[in-house]
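Project standup — Tuesday

K.O.: blocked on the structure for the chain from last sprint. Re-posting the sequence here as requested.
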Amino acid sequence: MLVFSYRYLLAAAPLAALALAGCTDKETAAKPIVYTGPLIETTNVETLVSDSARLQLRLTAPLEQQYESGDMYYRKGVHVQVYDKPGKVVVNTMEAKFGQLDKAKQLYIMRGDVRVANVPQQQTLRTEELFYDKLKHKIYTDTAMAVRIQTPTEVLTGYGMEASEDFSWYKIKRPVGEFTLQEAQQKGI
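H.V.: unblocked you, prediction finished:
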């Protein structure tokens, strides 16, 4: 009979150990997972911004993601048209491979092959990063950002730029070169 008891104990010991291991005084609660992704995703977006029934801005993008803070991300590109005071004529266009709207600051951030064009004056700007401040009605780049501005007759290059939102005036902060259009084409600028 003693042999039977040892076999019984040997078989029951692992089960008892498992049962005791499962009983703990402190139950550890799972940490909540905080979702930080977009709340809303919209495809083929067209946003019109107006003031006093006058169109100021038209934004189009293949994808818009809105976050809890109200910030918007345009990860598949963005195209913005700025209109004249009466809201009838497009005076400026801005496009980039990536865009973001910082809702609190009313600041658009555009990155990746950024192109700005003043339609009436036939001026274009190319850079890799651009900021558009809707409240101050200006566009600008960081002072270390290379910029290239082309007019119908010349090409201007440099670092850092500030301009009006309609791109009717601009200032290159650190100019590097001024070339005629023909010289720029010959040099590949």
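K.O.: great, moving the ticket to review. The longest strand covers residues 54-66. The two ends are 99 Å apart (CA to CA).
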